[in-house]
Each structure stands twice: as structure tokens, then as C-alpha cells.
Amino acid sequence: MIGIPLAMVVVATSGAAGVGVYGVRLARTTSDLFVASRAITPWWNAAAISGEYLSAASFLGVAGLGMKSGAAALWQPVGFTAGYLALLLFVAAPLRRFGSYTIPDFAEARLDAPRMRLLAALVVLLIADFYLVPQLKGAGLALRVITGSPYWAGIAVVALLVAVNVGAGGMRSVTYVQAYQFWVKTFAIALPACLLVIHLGGLPGRAALFGQAYPQAPPGGLVVKLGESRTLTFPAATTGQLDGRAFAVAAGARRRLGPGELVLPAGSAIPAPAGTTARTGRAWSRPVGGAEGASSPLLVYSLLLATFLGTMGLPHILVRFYTSPDGAAARRTTVRVLGLLGLFYLFPFVYSLLGRALVPQLYVTGATDLVVLKLPQAAWPGLPGDLLAGLTAAGAFAAFTSTASGLLISIAGTLSHDLAPRGGRAGPRERFRRFRLAAAGGMVVPGLMAVLARDVDISLLVGWAFALAASTFCPLFLLGIWWTGLTARGAASGMIAGAVSATAAIFAGLALGEPTGGAGPLLTQPAALTVPIAFATMVLVSLRGEPPAGTRGHMLALHAPEGLGLAGPER
Amino acid sequence: MDVLLGAFIGALVALSAVAAWRLVARPRGVLSPAAGMRETALHAATATLPHLRRGLDRRSAEKAVEHLRALTAADAVALTDTDSILAAAGVGASHLRPGAPLDALHGGGDDRIHVVDGLVWPDPSCPLQTAVVAPLVVQGERVGSFVTFTATSRRLTPEDTRAAGEAASLVAAQVELAVVASQGERLAEAELRALRAQISPHFIYNALAAVASHIHDAPDEARELLTDFAEFTRYAFRGERPYVTLADELRYVESYLRLEQARFGDRLVVRLVIAPEALQAVVPVLSVQPLVENAVRHGIESRPGTGTVEIRAEDHGADVVVEVRDDGPGMTDVRAGAALAGAGAGGGIGLSNVHRRMQQTFGEGYGLEVRSAAGGGTTIVMTVPKFRAGVRAT
């Protein structure tokens, strides 16, 4: 059982290592000396961007959230993909023409203010750390499912693996490696989804998906091991057993149960743990509606805003556009990314649909994030199920290692380049040494946070990273690229206002527990509040000052098509 | 668990709040009148500087005059070049239109401060009566003047004259900086021209000879070689292109290498290992080619038998590293150092030229590094940042 998934994870990972080593092709003869043939095509770069982007949140989180919240969770992949539309429309081509490699580069050069580099670097660290935590959490969960190791051990193993890989020169042929990882992930999520649907002959338990029924215990009864005591709400009158002792509850009763083995007879409605509500198929399959939970309209819009505007502010994504030779290629690349992500996101929800009928015990334990890993064996017992489970495990592993590598490269680059005392003075070797040190050190904080964040949903954690990016870097890019009036002071105030309000809302949401009621969703996903705050602050403070002297030149560099020779060296 | 996580994020919030406060808050305090004036003067002075550092013209003068008026506390001030007014500010500034000739202000045309009294204006309503004309002297040459005006109602004091003189020397110092900067640029251009001139007649002769030798037995190849040669010369001698992408530079290195391979045949083995992520880095024009030419000369030309030239470009995070390696006789550390400093014999001048231009553009932490041992081949390592503000390929 352990052997198959582990073997497949090892095969997929060593495949990535192989691509890394042989990705830069050797050429010895004049005929293939052409440099042009080495340039990355938009398709390759798009696959690389998608590979770096599809994280544990997409591979595990979307399906998990879908199982938990139903159709309302579909807004998340919609937002994840639509974010590239915003990137395509407003940012990709101008930023590529500008030539800046990282966000701190852009902030400093566009506003002629060295302090902006510092501020942008701090925000990069904040966002990248927030985004790394769910990756490591996914690693902890996945390795526990595969090998039975404790939660923290998986985090430690993956953190170490990624840190060593990045420190040892992990960006070697990174484009090919990430493109490979994209196809691994897409294959690993698509093939089991298709085969399982074919094997089951369609969707089982339709009443629980679209009708009036709650998810039900399977014909053989449901056995769940409760590791700690949990408060469960039973949607229907149920009789069950806990550690062999029978109990009976009325419909709507709350009962604190466990630790122990909970047995529910066949056909009984599945109870929901605290913080979630058991829903009938009809409620579950409604995308918007209801004042609370994941389908509250305010939460949906806030989430859409965060993902739509946050994607452009993800530090590990933007550096990939540097590989495009010009603005037009950057735009072409982004269109292809939209297509590739659209392809991938067809499949996670299949796991949500099947999981609701076949692995309802995840509702009881609250671990819906595991549905992608647990479903194949439950749906197709025996060797085929084991093989497919191995495949999804390998995909999950690819998901969190590739995203975590990209994020750690960003963190290490920021620590060693932007925050180190005047990095330009040190020689190349010294800079590389610093980068390695930073790669090792940069993993510590997110690792510790991941150990602490065990009970927070992956998709919620990722949502915060997006909210932060949307309320800091999105206004910086949109106003910096499209408005001549932006000043350094305005940009700094706006970014700080966005970062502080978003962090404060997230913290308040954590401290108050699952918030409900009118403004409650804003604490779960603060973007709808914090993005306008950031924009307003940036505009108002900028209006009071004078934009930097070089603005016209920068605007020319951002917007004049290449090849006209308009945006030459300044002065 | 939740409590710990909360504490963690709380600390983050506190840190960001402190950072916000540090960035937004300005030191406040009650200033004594003298300190207040000093602050006003200092502010006026620092506000003037950046504008004038771009050189003295109408645009920069326009930005600077208002601050200069605050600095000197005169009724009106004007900046002029040697024959007309560039910009003016203050009472009656409407009479001092930019472009107006300076005839009225011409007192003794020498390089000392002088006072022109009883000014006569075309419009008699102008209140400006007295002018103090302070020359702007840059590198021993008069480039214009700084003029303060006093209105009819006030008497000229010696302090007015002194303030005008001090302000004029401040302006002159800034303009001088601009001149020095443009001289630096011209120097860099001159170095590039020098490098172009160095592309050796020897190589051109050899390339043409190689073409000639192919013309009869392999006319197609000869035509391709001529195309390469044309491309090579166009790239090398086309001016006004200080920076190019590494992809462009490598394409040019290719045509150079094809010409060399036509000459050396199988004796020259070329190996290229290029990370695609590195191709968009911006490098000074003609920065990799001299390194390759150097490798060909040291690794192959100077000895019998085959030699290998390997060009690698790697992605190192925020940097791109280009390595050019030959397996020739190599050199000692002393000679390697001398080659970079420009004191070496042979190809050394090319290397030092590239090294200097790179350090001028990117700063001390970038440039060339020579790794070599006698008998062990030579590797020249070139490091460039992926982005540097204002440095853009054309």
C-alpha cells in the first residue's frame, strides 16, 4: 500500500531532477549553434508558468473546498484563472517592455525611489511566506496519508528537500522543469478522474449532489477514527456507536464525541463538524446564495476580487515573464496560460463530486483537503485504486514542490539581493553564497507557521496570500503602469495601508474563530475591503505630491512598442 | 494552536505598523526662528540641486528658479545663459520672458559679480530697479549668469550681493556635475569606439581569405560566409547602440565563430550551453565577442592541434553568468590580473575594455573575472544583473 504511491512520487520527482540536469541541451556542431533555436517558445513558457502556479491549493485545495462547500467553491478556480486575464490586459506586456526582473526592481525603478525597493521586498516576503505555508501544509498532509508519518515530518522533509534543491542551483533550466511539472500535475489529476468516472459508470449518489438528500454512509456502514474529541452536528435523527457503545441523536442535535471509533449504519446522514453545516444536494450545488459560509455573495465577490487582482502580485509568477523576449511574446504566453489552466481546472471538481458520495468520512474529520488522495482507493478498491492513488500522490508532490521552489527562489532572491546591505558591491561569488544562505534560512519561518496552521484550510491560506497581493502589488502595478500621477510616497502609503488592513482582518478572523453575519466574510477574505482602501490611499496621497521627474521616460518604456527605438536609454 | 498562530500573525501586524509609521511619519518639532530659516534655506537648496544636475537649459532652469528665489530672498531672480534669459521668477517676472536678450543687464562683461543700477524696461510699470548679476563659471568658462533683482522700494545691501554670489556658485557646481556626467558618457562612448577600432585587421584579412578559398570549390558556403561577414561588420560598426540583449550579442558571436571555423576547420571545436532564461539579460554591446575572440586566439591560434571554446550562460537568480572557456595553455594569476587591468600583452586590451565598461554600467560587484592556471586553460566569467534601472537594450 505504501510502496506504490511512494515509488510513483520518487519516479516523478527524479524525472524533474533529470529534466533539470539535461534541460540545457549540449550543442557541439555549428548547425545547432543557433541561439534563436534556444529561445523559449510561448507554449513552453506558458506551461512553466502554469507549472509554477498550480500549487497544493489547486491540486488538493480546490477539490477539498469543492467537497466541503459545493458549487460555491468553483469560484476559486474561476478566480485563479481569471487572474491571468487581468495580468494579460494590464500588466504582462508593459512590464516585460520595462525589463524589470522582480517586483522590487519595478517599484524602485518606476518611482525613482530606493526605499520602495525595501518596502516592496518586505511585502514580497510577506506574500511568499503566506503562500508557502499552505504548500508545506499540503506536504505534511500528503506524506501522512502516503507513509503514515507525523504531520510535522512531512513538512520537514519537503522543506529540506526544496531548500537543498534551491540552494544547490535549483534554477537550472527552471523553465523546462516547471513545464514538466505542469504536465505531471495535469496528467495526475486528469487520468484518475476520467478512469474513476468510467469505472463507476457516472456519478453515484446523485440525490446527495443535486437533490434533497444529505451525504450518506455507504452500504457497509461508515467507520471513522476520531483522533480527538469533536463537536458534530447531526442533520437527521441517527443511531450510531462510539467505541462499541450505542447512542442516538435527534435531527439537528449537536454532540461532542470522541476520541474513539465512530460507527454509523448504512444510509444514515453524515454529521458535520463545528464550523461547517451539513447541506442537502440542492444547497450544496448552488454557486451563490445563503448569507453565510462559502456561498455568501460578499465572500464570493471578495474572493473573486482577491484572485482576479492578486495573481499579478505573486512574486514567483512575474519573474517567469522575464524569459519572454518582448511584450508581444509575454502577451501570447499569458493567453496560453489561460488555456492550460482552464484545462487543468476541469478535473479537480470531479473529485469533489465523487468524494461527497464515496469518502463522506472526510466530512466528519474535517480533512476534506485529502479527497484527491483518498478517493481512488475508496472508489476502486484493489490494485487499480492503488495505482491511481499513487498517481494523485505524485501529482500532489509535484504541486507543492514546484510552487514551493518558485516561492523559495523569490524569498532567497529578495533576502540576498534586495534586503542585503547594498548587494551590488559584493562580488558574484559572495552574492551566490548569500543566496544559498537565504534559501536555507527562508524556509524556517514558513515551516514553523505551517506546523501551527494545521487546522486551517489550504484554500483559505492561499486566499490570504492572494488578498495580500491584491491589496499591495495590484494597485502598485495598475497605477504605476497606467497613471502618470503616482508618487513614491503615495505608493508606499497605499501598499502599507493594504498590507496592514489585510493582515489585520485575517488576524481578527483567526482570533474570532469562524465569523458569521453581515461583515463576517470580510474577515475570512478581506480583499473586497482592503483593495479599495489600498487604491484610495495610493491615489489620494499621490495627488498631494508631485510625481517623480522621470515618469514620462518610464511611461514611454512601459508602453511604446519595441522596435521603434523610442524607449532608448534615458537622459 | 490557534493562539500561537494568532500571536505569530499579531507580531507580523505590529511589525508592518511600525514600518508604516517609520515611512510615513516625518520628524516633527517646534523650531526656533533661526532654525526655521535654516530649514527653509536648506530645503530650497536641496530642491534646486537635482534639477540643475541635468544641465542648464530652459526646462531645468524653470524648475530651479522658484527655489533659488526662496534661497536668496530676492524680489525676483533669473537664470540666463550667455545671451538670453532662460527662466525667471518673482515680482515682475512677466517682464523677464524666457528668450529675451540680456542687453539691459550687460555691465562689464567680465567674470565678476556686478551691480546694474537704474534698469530701464520697455514697460515703465516694472518695479525692478536694481540687478545683481553673478556669473556662472563652469570649468573655467562662463556658461551664463544668475541675476537677482531688487524692487524700487528697497535698497540694495551687501548681503544681497553676497547671497547672489553664493547661490550662483551653488548653481555652477551643479551644472559642473552635469558636465562631468556627460563627459563620463562621452568617455564610455569613446571606449566603445576604441574597441570597434581594435577589431583586428588581421581577423578581417583572415575572414576574407577564408571566403576566397571557398569560392571555387564551395560557392554556397562562401556566400554564407560573406553574409556572416556582412552581419558581423554591421553589428560591430553600427553606432548608437550601447546595450543589447545577450541573445543579440550571442547571435553576433555566432557569425564571428562561423568565420573563424571556416578558417580553422576541424581545429576549432565550439560548444554552447545556454540557459534560455539568460537570453534576455541586457549586456553592453561587444562584451561577449571580445572574450570569445580572446579564447580563440589563446586556445587555438597560439598552438597546434585542436582546441575547444565553450560558451556557457547560466541563470543565477538576479544575475546572469556568462562563461567563456578555452583549453589553451592558460596563464598565471599575475598575467590574468594584468589582462583585466589593461596592462597585459595581446588580447588584454579588449578584456580590460569590457571589464571597465561593465563596471561603469553595473557597478563594482559586476564585470569580468579570469580563472586560469598555467597549462590548464582559461575561463573568463562575466556577471551581469538581470535588471538595472535605465539600462535597456535597443
TrEMBL record, chain A:
Gene3D superfamilies: Sodium/glucose cotransporter. It is a multi-pass membrane protein. Keywords: Cell membrane, Membrane, Symport, Transmembrane, Transmembrane helix, Transport. It is found in: Cell membrane. Coiled coil: none annotated. It comes from the Bacteria. It holds the Pfam family SSF. Its main location: membrane. The keyword Cytoplasm does not apply. The chain crosses the membrane at residues 6-24, 73-95, 116-132, 152-170, 182-201, 298-322, 334-354, 387-415, 435-452, 458-483, 495-513, 525-543. Belongs to the sodium:solute symporter (SSF) (TC 2.A.21) family. PANTHER family: CATION_ACETATE SYMPORTER ACTP, SODIUM/PROLINE SYMPORTER-RELATED. This is Cation acetate symporter. It comes from Paraconexibacter antarcticus. The lineage of its organism: Bacteria, Bacillati, Actinomycetota, Thermoleophilia, Solirubrobacterales.
UniProtKB/TrEMBL annotation, chain B:
PROSITE patterns: HIS_KIN. It is an enzyme of class 2 (transferase). One of its GO terms (molecular function) is kinase activity. Residues 291-388 form the Histidine kinase domain. Its EC number is 2.7.13.3. The keyword Transferase applies. InterPro entries: Bact_2-comp_sensor_kinase, HATPase_C_sf, HATPase_dom, His_kinase_dom, Sig_transdc_His_kin-like_C, Sig_transdc_His_kin_internal. It catalyses: ATP + protein L-histidine = ADP + protein N-phospho-L-histidine. PANTHER family: SENSOR HISTIDINE KINASE YPDA. This is histidine kinase. It comes from Paraconexibacter antarcticus.
